[in-house]
Write a structure and sequence with these properties.
mainly alpha
Length: about 150
């Protein structure tokens, strides 16, 4: 744009000297001002024991207050706006023989000998019935469980 019009931009028309300068006698007293600031900071850092304890407890108290506010903001609206939607539990009395029979497994149907023989039997018949070719064919099929179930049912 400037090349077409052969005009200089505005910032090039200004003088090239630095417009900023340091105040007169600024560096004459800089040492005294720095030392005064250091002494002032050292005096400010000496605090009492209660001040140190308060500085340590301030973040802890802030966290406790924030947890209390969060609890109050969650608990009271739930308590006051939905008291009717509480679940009421009912206990059933299963001391009657009819309900006991309905809810318990009848152990008298199993005798001791059949239980022991079932636990300690070495039944390997189920593994010997499976042929390796059938197992390989089953593993190589890319069927889903539902498809396998429907194949078995048909």
């Amino acid at each position: 744009m400037y090349e077409e019009n052969n005009t200089e931009p505005e910032f090039m028309k200004r003088p090239r000297s630095n417009p900023f300068r340091t105040p007169d006698h600024y560096f004459d007293t800089i040492e005294d001002r720095i030392m005064g600031a250091i002494e002032h900071e050292a005096k400010k850092k000496t605090t009492s024991a209660t001040g140190k304890i308060f500085q340590l407890l301030k973040p802890v108290l802030g966290l406790a207050a924030s947890f209390a506010v969060i609890y109050l903001l969650a608990y009271y609206p739930i308590k006051y706006f939905s008291p009717k939607s509480m679940v009421k539990s009912e206990t059933t009395n299963i001391s009657s023989p009819e309900t006991l029979d309905a809810y318990t497994f009848n152990v008298s149907l199993i005798d001791e000998n059949s239980l022991v023989s079932t636990i300690f039997s070495d039944e390997t018949d189920t593994l010997s019935e499976i042929k390796p070719d059938e197992l390989l064919a089953f593993l190589s099929t890319e069927m889903t469980d539902l498809e396998i179930y429907t194949e078995i049912q048909n």
